[in-house]
Amino acid sequence: MENGHKEDGDMEHPVKSSAHKVNPGKPASLTWQRKLNTKANTLTRFNLKLREIKHLISIIDPFSKRLVTSYHGVPLGGIGGGSIGRSYRGEFQRYQLFPRICEDSPVLANQFSVFVSRPNGKKSSTVLCPRNPEVLKGSASSGIGSWDWNLDGESCTYHALYPRAWTVYEGEPDPEISIISSQISPFIPHNYKESSFPVSVFKFTLSNSGKTSADITLLFTWANSVGGTSEFSGHHYNSKMKTKDGVHGVLLHHKTANGHPPVTFAIAAEETGDVHISECPCFLISGNSLGVTAKEMWQEIKQVS
């Protein structure tokens, strides 16, 4: 077997299937777990020996200053195709998209958010991540600091079992709504080709225990960035896309600086009879440039939700 493809002379082996059905929207029974408001432990720094540095230098720059944190969860991406880390709090961090380059800090505009509306006019909304103190640093009133960072995290639990992860949001932002976000990246036995795809899939399962119906809007925001300050290097652009099977999305074309090749992110979701998809290909995270601001985008969703 080579990269998941049968070669001449390979013996056929019977495939064993299990009668046990797996619910992808429910956390596995044995997982590593953290409450979203769990405080990170302070990690002890250590020095590398010269021999260890020689081994690492072909993989990563051991001399660069690193952001040390214990918030790490299951990363996004397959094997050998680069990865984007995810904290158990919900942040996207630790961007390793190019050899030897690792951008540890989270890009705080990259978030899932939820808006809930009841027939009686009651509305609630929040970013699905506890507030990070860095959100307000250098963020004008029109930036992402204007969003509703209302998640407490005490009743929310992160579950990890590589290559999958789940986050269960109980009663936030609506006390009668339960949200389960499941994340999976390709990790397929005996199939290196498709296991190396730089992709990840998120699935949301929502339950309403209230006596009235609820309209729920899920928002996914993503900066045109490969980590660090790359979003400010210029000449990036975004465009809408749509396929024949009802998949809507946005392509984020990143003109990477410092000699690295260009990158295109693709964000997409499938529209169904019960799910309506809309796109906003561009808004301003910060600064005073002309265009739709992060605050205006957020307020518009709150009004129509």
Automatic annotation (TrEMBL):
<dbReference type="InterPro" id="IPR024462">
    <property type="entry name" value="GH116_N"/>
</dbReference>
<dbReference type="Pfam" id="PF12215">
    <property type="entry name" value="Glyco_hydr_116N"/>
</dbReference>
<feature type="domain" description="Glycosyl-hydrolase family 116 N-terminal">
    <location>
        <begin position="73"/>
        <end position="303"/>
    </location>
</feature>
<protein>
    <recommendedName>
        <fullName>Glycosyl-hydrolase family 116 N-terminal domain-containing protein</fullName>
    </recommendedName>
</protein>
<feature type="compositionally biased region" description="Basic and acidic residues">
    <location>
        <begin position="1"/>
        <end position="15"/>
    </location>
</feature>
<feature type="region of interest" description="Disordered">
    <location>
        <begin position="1"/>
        <end position="28"/>
    </location>
</feature>
<dbReference type="InterPro" id="IPR052566">
    <property type="entry name" value="Non-lysos_glucosylceramidase"/>
</dbReference>
